[in-house]
Amino acid sequence: MAKLNFFSLLQELNxxxxxxxxxxxxxxxxxxxxxxxxxxxxxxFHPDFSNQKKMAVEYATAxxxxxxxxxxxxxxxxxxxTFSDLFKLLKEYLILDSVRKDEKNAELIWxxxxxxxxxxSFFASQTDSIYAKITEESAIxxxxxxxxxxxxxxxxxxxxxxxTKSPPIQDxxxxxxxxxxxxxMWLEKMECQLANARKVRPGAASEQLRTVAxxxxxxxxxxxMHQMILNEDEALFKEIEKLLIENIHRIDPEELxxxxxPLRNFLSVKIRKDRDNPWVAKFHELNLFRLQYDPRNQKxxxxxxxxxxxxxxxxxxxxxxxxESFVREYGPQLGEGSRANNIRLANATILFTRxxxxxxxxxxxxxxxxxxxxxxxxxxxxxxxYFELKIAPNDIxxxxxxxxxxxxxxxxxxKEPPLEAALAxxxxxxxxxxMNANKKVLLKRxxxxxxLILGHWLEEQVRKYKx
Length: 467
Fold this sequence. Notes:
Radius of gyration: 31 Å
Shape: elongated
Number of strands: 0
Distance between the termini: 83 Å
Structural class: mainly alpha
Strand content: under 5%
Oligomer: single chain
Mean pLDDT: 85
Largest sheet: none
Number of domains: 4
């Protein structure tokens, strides 16, 4: 069978393909390797392979290996095994050659590789560049080009979806519309071909249809998730969670990570709207679930924001020992550019939770954070430490004023929800330290801002009132 497969495939290739495979084989196997020597013998009979006598395994083995390969090995190579190896190598060569010759297909594979390996920064720049180039070109109308644009739109959509701080809604919608148009075109084409086939065989319509039992769990999860997001439905969240647990060993780990993102966003909204609810614990369970089924089967490749959020949720539940263990295990696996600052922020958060406020400040004040969002998180922690240490109200007020001005400047560049939430937090801190508002008024103000960060902590400070 191995011999039949190899020669059947080789027979379909032209002389240039055979020469290309020969060159490839020598490069990766070595000029004197067994596969190369066997191939060099048999390629002389291409393309018809009609000389049955000289192609017979026994005859060929004697010609290719007239003497034992070494004193230790008196037996000649088993040719059927070599044919099997050659078939796999030829298949590999044809795939690589196809990618090399088809630039568009190579680009799709390249982008998909970057995405699956979670090299997100490079994936983003490459996808933006390729997508901009193809959308400016007037492509020839063909299924191949439409397929390319459709799949590229799906990849560009994933690229845009990674911009969680400020998702570009219009661009995402454009990608979705492009992909939907391609799918509709493809389905219409298949409907036309099926209708034509029915004309050719009009009696076949009465034949019993063969049904394929496709698993529908993923479809059900995404359908429920769509409704959950639109209606903020807690019951649907629980149904999705149940489906995930029941099918976890059948869901691809990469797919699981995509599913978990909207679930975590759903929980974030719930936590901000109801600060005394049990959703924080549910969020931590979801994080444990994510870590347990890491698609890379190794610790790491967690994005900086996710790393920080996991620590924040754990410390919110006072699971400080677990948070420390997580930082030790996953911190070293963060990208080199963000690793030091993210570990520093995580350790500062843990120290704050342990009420070691002075140590927390020491960690934060070691050096300036370069990234604005990291700087914002650090300054938020510093401000909270000032409150807890009851430093002079005027000093806290001055710090709030400086922080507020920094956020205002950033918001003029780009309005983003996390910045607006942080600004609201700082302004309430200013109101508390100024002591120029009624407690009930301040508590109402906090409760009426559902997207406010650290609302639970602000409520504690208002109830203390005197710092």
